[in-house]
Amino acid sequence: MEITWYGHSTFGVEVDETSLLVDPFFGNPKTDLDPSDLDTPDYVLFTHGHEDHIAHAEAFSGATLIAVPELATYASEEFGYENLIGGMGMNMGGTVEAGDAYVTMVRADHSNGIMTDYEYSAGPPAGFVISNTKPTQIEDEESETFYHAGDTSLMSEMRDVIGPFLEPDVAAVPVGDHFTMGPMQAAVAVDWLDVDYALPMHYDTFPPIEIDTEEFESEVAGTGSDAEVVVLDGDETFTLEVPR
């Protein structure tokens, strides 16, 4: 599995022959790319409808969209998405097959209104667990699993559900504070999730979320977690290879 960070919360994920793009927003200082520089992925995933997560959604409208029904309907009407997963989107707790990948939608604690000429309800915010095998109660040590937490605060579901049952190997967690978790709470999330690798995201885009990532690394170490913090440069790829 290859995971590329395009800055902020925008990630490209390659699972075998399937490409996925999470939260397309290229108006951030970490990327040198324009949406037109990327091929249209097979699937686009929206965690929620704030502009810093869907600002460049229209550029990828040829993909199949994975989002909650309210947000999927909005994207269909506003951005021209014709292919919605399941014909209408999906919701919390569901798992869908997306080419060579499996995508499970999980909770995120955040807000999700879209401000246009009026405020449009985009349904609940979400996170995604992306894996190359279908999640089951039978432990699969060969599965490769990436958790994109979305915009969220610390929540016990990370400790009680996502970590023990969906078993992510690597987690992208927001660390910028102010609008989401900051370094301390994000570090607790990493510990609860029991991941091998932690990728900080959602920082340095705007003045309120500028941080020193060394603070996050220190906080992770302070929890006693064995997770390796991988601070990616914009447009850099992390390759997840679970030992066979």
From TrEMBL:
Source lineage: Archaea, Methanobacteriati, Methanobacteriota, Stenosarchaea group, Halobacteria
Keyword ATP-binding: no
Species per Swiss-Prot/TrEMBL record: Halosegnis rubeus
SMART domains: Lactamase_B (SM00849)
Molecular function, one GO term: hydrolase activity
Keyword RNA-binding carried by entry: no
Pfam families registered for this protein in UniProt: Lactamase_B_3 (PF13483)
Family: Belongs to the UPF0173 family.
Domain Metallo-beta-lactamase: from-to ranges: 7-202
Keyword tags: Hydrolase
UniProt superkingdom: Archaea
Protein name: UPF0173 metal-dependent hydrolase DM867_12690
